[in-house]
Write a structure and sequence with these properties.
The chain is an all-alpha fold. 73% of the residues lie in helices and 0% in strands. It is globular.
């Protein structure tokens, strides 16, 4: 079942269960997917059917990042009720993401991407990140992976960074 179908099925179930908060979050996900569909409609290189699973994973990743930042801001402002709501939304969104890679798997993925791209210096970081994003979208936090890639490339270039 593709991502769009999974979201729609969960949305229908939330309606049946009368789970208002879950339903609200699922509607936000659906709206973001439809927004991306509309945005890609105008471009010539995209197929007319809209965004695929990789696009949906990217959308979900951005939604999680936004909500975690909002929760942190609310906590700093003393609005714990709003922070908890944002974190509950994160839990609903995470249900649709694939299993997150652990630290050892991320390190292995970085090594594989470096070998696949033939990266030898920090100048090749963009190639490595592109390779990782194409293979592991939704499975790792690329904000944390970037410095790790940089460290690996610096180590392979004998510290010349």
């Amino acid at each position: 079942m593709d991502m769009r179908s999974r979201v729609n099925t969960a949305l229908k179930q939330a309606m049946k269960d009368k789970a208002a908060e879950r339903l609200s979050t699922l509607r936000l996900i659906n709206a973001a997917i439809k927004d991306r569909d509309i945005a890609t409609r105008g471009s010539d290189n995209e197929e007319a059917k809209g965004c695929g699973d990789s696009d949906v994973l990217e959308i979900l990743g951005k939604m999680i990042k936004q909500r975690k930042e909002s929760a942190r801001t609310y906590e700093e402002g003393g609005r714990l009720d709003l922070a908890e709501r944002e974190l509950r939304e994160v839990e609903v969104i995470e249900e649709f993401l694939p299993k997150q890679l652990d630290d050892d798997e991320v390190a292995q993925a970085i090594q594989t991407a470096i070998m696949a791209t033939g990266a030898g210096s920090i100048r090749d970081m963009g190639k490595v990140m592109g390779e990782l994003k194409s293979r592991y979208t939704g499975q790792m936090d690329f904000g944390k992976v970037g410095p790790m890639v940089k460290d690996h490339l610096c180590a392979s270039a004998n510290g010349n960074c």
